[in-house]
Design a protein that fits this description.
The protein is an all-alpha fold. The protein is built from 5 helices and no strands.
Length: 156
């Protein structure tokens, strides 16, 4: 079966295709003269504004340590919840899962430990985001004086 393109209705689109092939857009481009000054709205955005616009919405506003707190919270949450899942809660949760899932007990313990680990990482990561937003701030870097010894010129 071959592909047959559908022609545009009422001759629409023929002029645009011909102009695109010839390189002529059909519109005259007016260049501003040197006497005319463009308003600030017409000027391109500065590089700092362009970089800020690329950030996600939560990073565009006030600078805070939410992402850092979330990262620390997820790390701590993974460690603690895996420890809790392996030490005892995984076995209890696996017992409850045995009524629903038809797997052997060792597989159920692994599934239960994984569920506890994911839930703990999400919960503690959210708490870490809140704590980081509250306590971690961006501060001005400290001014450190150069404390290196100055070398004395050697006497000849």
């Amino acid at each position: 079966m071959t592909y047959v393109p559908i022609p545009p209705q009422d001759g629409q689109g023929d002029d645009e295709e011909a102009a695109a092939l010839s390189g002529d857009s059909g519109e005259e481009v007016q260049e501003p003269s040197q006497g005319e000054q463009s308003s600030p709205e017409e000027q391109p955005p500065s590089p700092a504004d362009a970089a800020t616009a690329k950030l996600p919405p939560e990073a565009q506003g006030e600078i805070h340590g939410g992402p850092l707190g979330c990262c620390l919270g997820v790390t701590v949450g993974l460690l603690l919840s895996t420890l809790l899942g392996v030490l005892g809660f995984g076995h209890n949760f696996a017992f409850l899962l045995s009524f629903v899932l038809p797997f052997n007990p060792l597989t159920l313990v692994r599934i239960a430990t994984g569920c506890i680990t994911v839930a703990g990482a999400i919960i503690v990561g959210f708490v870490g985001w809140k704590v980081g937003k509250r306590f971690y701030r961006e501060y001005e870097p400290p001014v450190i004086k150069d404390r290196r010894r100055k070398s004395k010129p050697k006497e000849v």
